[in-house]
């Protein structure tokens, strides 16, 4: 092998222990449609959804992360998607305000969980804000999505309440209605992300290219199986089992893909990240 054929060594990636909040899908079903993935006419296997959620929960524990749980509530089938109900940075909690009335009640249950667990700096937004569904912390600044759910005004509110810089991004494909269906943070040291370009406006795409010139670029196939709804601890990346193309790219970058099956949860437009709120501080 010539020197020109030798690939540069990939630096060893170090995982960091995370703390997550999750909600079991005890009342999970698809009884209404608030995104293009939801079809109430298609049956949902609740037992399988619970088994898949449990496997995701156990995967985090096996990776060394701490997982807290909140009690699911009857009548709130989407409460399993914990990421939509809070953004926590340095112990400050910015709650949620949902666009869809069917999910509105979820926000206060999560607010109460934080208060009951010793968080005193909890602020509920005045603008529509679907939390980590549209807010992604990079370690240096907050990427904030808008276009379908979270209002643009929530971005400025997040900056004021959380005290971190915010970069706004516009989503344009209704299938990728939350930022966390089109982009996720791989690590917070560099930082770097993986994203699906076709989900963003032209201007937002230029911003992403400027901020992350070495980003992992996902294919349409990766996006359609919710591969961009992944969860990374800086080394281990939890992905849907179908996201094989994305996994191959990540492996080349020194990450370790960890596959989970989220087929039932995907019927409501959710994946690993949707089920996982990260508590920072």
From TrEMBL:
<protein>
    <submittedName>
        <fullName>N-dimethylarginine dimethylaminohydrolase</fullName>
    </submittedName>
</protein>
<dbReference type="GO" id="GO:0016787">
    <property type="term" value="F:hydrolase activity"/>
</dbReference>
<keyword id="KW-0378">Hydrolase</keyword>
């Amino acid at each position: 092998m010539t020197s020109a054929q030798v690939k540069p060594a990939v630096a060893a990636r170090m995982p960091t222990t995370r703390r997550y909040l999750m909600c079991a899908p005890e009342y999970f079903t698809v009884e209404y449609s608030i995104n293009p993935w939801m079809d109430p006419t298609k049956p949902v296997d609740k037992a399988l959804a619970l088994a898949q959620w449990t496997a995701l929960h156990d995967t985090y524990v096996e990776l060394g992360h701490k997982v807290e749980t909140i009690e699911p509530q009857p009548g709130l089938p989407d409460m399993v998607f914990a990421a939509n109900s809070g953004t926590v940075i340095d112990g400050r909690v910015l709650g949620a305000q949902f666009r869809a009335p069917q999910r509105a009640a979820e926000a206060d249950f999560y607010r109460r969980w934080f208060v009951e667990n010793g968080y005193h700096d909890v602020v509920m937004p005045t603008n529509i804000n679907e939390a980590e569904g549209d807010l992604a912390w990079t370690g240096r600044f907050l990427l904030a999505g808008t276009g379908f759910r979270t209002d643009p005004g929530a971005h400025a509110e997040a900056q004021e309440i959380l005290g971190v810089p915010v970069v706004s991004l516009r989503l344009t494909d209704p299938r990728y209605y939350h930022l966390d269906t089109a982009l996720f943070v791989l690590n917070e040291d560099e930082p770097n992300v993986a994203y699906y370009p076709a989900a963003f406006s032209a201007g937002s795409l230029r911003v992403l290219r400027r901020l992350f010139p070495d980003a992992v670029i996902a294919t349409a196939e990766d996006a359609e199986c919710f591969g961009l709804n992944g969860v990374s601890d800086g080394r281990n990346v939890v992905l849907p089992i179908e996201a094989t193309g994305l996994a191959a790219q990540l492996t080349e970058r020194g990450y370790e893909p960890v596959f989970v099956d989220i087929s039932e949860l995907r019927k409501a437009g959710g994946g690993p990240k949707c089920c996982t709120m990260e508590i920072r501080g």
